[in-house]
Amino acid sequence: MPKGSEDWNRLVGRTVELRQDGRLIRAGEVEDAAKDSSVMWLRFDGNHGRQLIAKSDNYEVILRERLGQDG
Asked: Of the candidates 13, 52, 14, which has an alpha carbon nearest to the alpha carbon of residue 3?
């Protein structure tokens, strides 16, 4: 799957990184996504819980496995 996939439903259960201007903002597991891929819930480890991410937030979404860091 190419980085920045437009179909967030295909990322459910996978670990992704959110990047903006090339900087890592957060990484977490995609817990769920809207059918139209307009938003997704990203779950984080520790005390951060989860966060609703909107496509309009303009993050670059990268599948962490593609970076060889999932494990």
From this structure: 14
